Amino acid sequence: MSHPGATASDRHKVVIIGSGFGGLNAAQALKRTDVDIKLIARTTHHLFQPLLYQVATGIISEGEIAPPTRLILRKQRNAQVLLGDVTHVNLEKKTVESVLLGHTYSTPYDTLILAAGAGQSYFGNDHFAEWAPGMKTIDDALELRGRILGAFEQAERSSDPERRKKLLTFVVVGAGPTGVEMAGQIQELADQTLKGSFRHIDPTEAHVILLDAAPAVLPPMGEKLGLKAKERLEKMGVEIQLNAMVTDVDRNGITVKDSDGTLRRIESACKVWSAGVQASPLGKDLAAQSETEIDRAGRVIVNPDLSIPGHPNVFVVGDMAFVPGVPGMAQGAIQGGKYVAAIVKNEAAARAHGTKPKPRVPFKYFDKGSMATVSKWNAVAKVGKLEFGGFIAWLAWLGLHLIYLVGFKTKIATLLSWAVTFLSRQRGQLTITEQQAYARIRIEELQEIAASVQESEKAAS
Ligand SMILES: Cc1cc2nc3c(=O)[nH]c(=O)nc-3n(C[C@H](O)[C@H](O)[C@H](O)COP(=O)(O)OP(=O)(O)OC[C@H]3O[C@@H](n4cnc5c(N)ncnc54)[C@H](O)[C@@H]3O)c2cc1C
User: Fold this and answer.
1) Is the sign of the CA dihedral 330, 129, 150, 185 positive or negative?
2) Residues 134 and 173 in one domain
3) d(CA 170, CA 165)
4) Which of 297, 323, 353 is the C-terminal boundary of a domain?
5) Where is the FAD/NAD(P)-binding domain (predicted)?
């Protein structure tokens, strides 16, 4: 649709924050719309988060789930991809501030789509992150791969049985889909891929613990599927501890409070955090400048058309938004991104024809179901009222993930990696580097050094 006489500078400016499911789908759905799109994200890639656990456990490479956004949108002439960390949205001036390597950029918008997702929540205990990384980014997944494989390496060199036990105990906190997938894969990595490759330790003696403060595994998927997943994990050797709340995490393990109030300790060198999410702080930024409200998880409570109160051209989609009945899942973000793009498209067409746009209809989520893999050949799935588990669910999981992976090359590469792992027990991505495994600790050490230098300079002046 062409706007007669429109130039690049007076074209309607759409700024999208985030290149995840919500942001990317919004941008792609505006391909043939006469608008100027600037997609700003803090990473150069679009990340397929549901497969991060496979990067962490060496099944696939990071490139397979993180294609460059720039290349995905290469042929979309109305879209420009910009790298930057968005720090502020100025609702009055209608600008977005983003930072790249210390430089701040201001980008004006007519329509703004916020799709900045969510980060890990440690429920107010952010210091847990140092010893129990979450699983939200490629950095997280590679760091975890380094820590998991690094623990086996250290155990091989240890002559102290207590230390070996600690190194071979892996604790996954949070029994949602990510926790279940992670625990199952660490167990399979130990029992199948690493078996027989060490001389001093037996990797199959690794002890994987999946724990949660809730009384069930996979609570959002219902009791029946939760039990199925639990039984399968236990059969594989994973120990499930429910009603167990983590009260502390340190280098050597975690402290847990059971439902009867008893405190106990689990000695473990490698901990994974997959409990709880906190929406992007940009929601709070919006709330500080408007009548927008956020919920406890920091999600923006949006209007029925996903806009924010008093700002009909500022939309929030995906994990950043709270919409009743819409789960924090890929489909919620994809459908939200496409829905907002349809509004933008409709209103651009009306502007071009000098007519009134069709009234906005409220966003309606179509529930396509949810699934989680438990182990090789075994998954659980819930589609409408239908609940099933086992091999059929696993096949459905495989097919659906292939459909939603972005790009033909990515799909082929992933399929090949899966063939290697599922048919042979091998894994093609077991490379680790010291930087990956210890970057977070080193960065924190550097920050502490910098802070103490600043303090002593202050004291001296
Ligand atoms: C480990 C894991 C497993 C999952 N498994 C499943 C699953 O099996 N099925 C399912 O349906 N869902 C799953 N999910 C949830 C699903 O991935 C999310 O619901 C979905 O990614 C949300 O999309 P989004 O666009 O809102 O946010 P995201 O996909 O998180 O994208 C956010 C984007 O915003 C960018 N960004 C964030 N802050 C800023 C900033 N300040 N400045 C610039 N850019 C910023 C990020 O770099 C990213 O590009 C999983 C999530 C995780 C973490």
Assistant:
1) negative
2) yes
3) 10
4) 353
5) 13-337
Tell me the C-alpha distance between 15 and 115, whole Å: 11
Hey, is 213 helix, strand or coil? coil
Q: Which of 315, 341, 326 is nearest to 116 (CA)?
A: 315
Is residue 455 part of the annotated active site? The answer reads: no
Instruction: Count structural domains, the chain.
Output: 2
As a whole number of angstroms, the distance between CA 51 and CA 28 comes to 22
**Atom number of ligand 1 nearest to Cα 401:** 8
Of the residues 62, 143, 181, 347, only one is catalytic, namely 181
410 belongs to a structural domain: no
**Other residues' Cβ atoms within 10 Å of the Cβ of residue 403:** 8
Name the residue at shortest CA distance from atom 52 of ligand 1: 49
**Is residue 288 one of the residues assigned to a domain?**
yes
Q: What is the pLDDT of residue 8?
A: 54
Tokens of 306: 């996903």
Domain of 221 in residue numbering reads as 126-275
In ligand 1, the atom with minimum distance to the C-alpha of 22 is 25
Q: pTM of the predicted model, to two decimals?
A: 0.92
CA dihedral 407, 408, 414, 419 (to 10 degrees): 160
**Ligand 1 atom closest to the CA of 53, numbered from 1:** 1
Please, are residues 12 and 328 in contact by the beta-carbon 8 Å criterion?
no
Q: What is the pLDDT of residues 211-244, one digit of tens each?
A: 999 999 999 899 999 999 999 999 999 999 999 9
Tell which of 275, 301, 328 closes a domain: 275
Q: What residue ranges of the chain have pLDDT lower than 70? A: 1-9
Instruction: List phi, psi (to 5°) of 17.
Output: -105, 120
Question: pLDDT tens digits for 143-182?
Answer: 999 999 999 999 999 999 999 999 999 999 999 999 999 9
CATH of the domain at 330: 3.50.50.60
Which residue of 24, 25, 40, 49 sits with most ligand 1 atoms within 8 Å of its CB, as the best mutation to test the pocket?
Answer: 49
Contact 18 CB / ligand 1 (< 6 Å): yes
Same domain, 260 and 286: no
23 lines ligand 1 (CB under 6 A): yes
Q: Is residue 191 part of a domain?
A: yes
Testing ligand 1's pocket by substitution, the residue of 15, 329, 334 carrying the most ligand atoms inside 8 A of its CB is: 329
Q: Are residues 133 and 271 in the same domain?
A: yes
